[in-house]
Amino acid sequence: MDLWGKQAQEAKRALRYLSEDQRNQALKNIALALRESVDEIIAANSKDMDEAKKNNLNAAMTDRLLLDEKRINAMADGVDSIANQDQVVSCIYNERTNEKGLKIAKQRIPLGVILMIFESRPNVVIDCAALAIKSGNAILLKGGKEAKYSNECLGDLINAATKEFLPKFSVQVLKSDDRSTVNELLSKKEYIDLVIPRGGKKLIEHVYENARMPVIAHFEGLCHMYIDSSAKEEMALDLIVNAKTHRTGVCNAMETLLVHESQLANLAPKITKALQERSTELRVDEKFKDASGVDLKIANDQDWATEYLENILSIKSVASVDEAIAHIDKYGTNHTEAIVSEDQASVDKFFQVVDASCLMHNASTRFNDGGELGLGAELGISTTKIHAYGPMGAEEMTSSRFIVLGSGQVRS
Domain containing 343 — which CATH number? Predict the structure, then answer.
């Protein structure tokens, strides 16, 4: 454990000497290696998928575990996108000159050594390694045993692709299935500057309770969409179907739909039909059930508080945008909240009052994603406001310091 930490600290110091060209060339080599190693990656991933089947891994985690040619090429595209982004580390901004003639500016600097602890999701290895390289950080990646073969394959690929450009141990995929490894890592504040957990609620709570270094957390994604009284029917239906059924096991999928009462007579039957055609289980309030004309399951308080990560949707009728906001305040998890409306006053109120890392107007919740928002990839979607809020890209993996240029000034 100490060895991993010492190696990461050595890499952190060496990374300071790298040029932007060296960082970008390392990234381009990773993207190329991914495209050239599709069969090898799929073979490793198949071993994990076989184990998942034997162990009855749930549908959401199994979906996140899968790597196919399309997903591998998307990972490569994300790495290329990160390489093509503007320089992040060492950039100077907010320059000014004070009354003493001192030139004062701020400079972006790496955070240091980052520990990622994650479940399933082998794409995290590539996404987070690429963002760490771009931002000049060393990174330790501790994945779950369910993605053992995939993670190790991708870690070996990264090290082979970057050995000419990066210091050794800049990216370490930790090969240990021992559960005690996580607790030991969380105690190593002398080596690790920040830990980011990405996975289920139990994992994140465990990290919060045991980490001796700062934590940035990606908590639950209990995402809502509110259909306002002014919403356009066709748009609303398209957005509802996409936000719920495009990929049900991910954190930016909609879990609760809020529908203005004035829309129920027209929309409830159409929403019900569209979602039942896609095998979505609906749990609704009495008003929506009556308007739908179908004998739907009645939702309870637990449903409003549940991130299903399955093809299940809770639906509640509300009398106003204020009632929708109150429901989100009570049950939301600061992840992604959407309003479908043609009334600017309702949109303005929603955007002013709702507390979430990303707010959507007339767009699917599925767009709260680092790749979709132009970050290339993401470490995760932070639902805590300290340091970062929302998808974390390369810029969110930096801090800043003051740079002061003088010509002999002394303080009187």
Answer: 3.40.309.10
Which residues make Cβ contacts (< 8 Å) with residue 228, sequence separation at least 6?
260, 321, 339, 340, 341, 342, 343, 346
- Taking the chain (412 residues) in runs of 10, the rounded mean pLDDT of each run is 88 96 98 98 96 89 92 95 95 96 97 92 94 97 93 97 96 83 91 90 88 87 96 97 94 96 97 97 97 95 94 98 98 95 98 96 93 78 80 90 95 88
Report how far residue 104's alpha carbon sits from residue 85's, in angstroms, rounded to the nearest whole number: 26
Long-range contact pairs involving 213-218 (C-beta distance under 8 Å, separation at least 24): 213/115, 213/186, 213/188, 213/189, 214/387, 216/380, 216/382, 216/384, 216/386, 216/387, 216/388, 216/392, 217/382, 217/383, 217/384, 218/251, 218/380, 218/381, 218/382, 218/383
Q: Which domain holds residue 280?
A: 223-367
CB 401 within 8 A of CB 93: no
With DSSP H G I counted as helix, E B as strand and the rest as coil, what are the percentages for the chain, rounded to 5? 45, 20, 35
| Nearest of 220, 279, 218 to residue 244 by alpha carbon | 279
**DSSP single-letter state for residue 218:** B
Same domain, yes or no: 207 and 260: no
How open is the CA angle 347-351-357, to the nearest 5 degrees?
A: 140
CATH number at residue 167: 3.40.605.10
Same domain flag for 99 and 172? yes
Indicate the number of domains in the chain.
Answer: 2
Q: Is 367 helix (H, G, I), strand (E, B) or coil?
A: helix
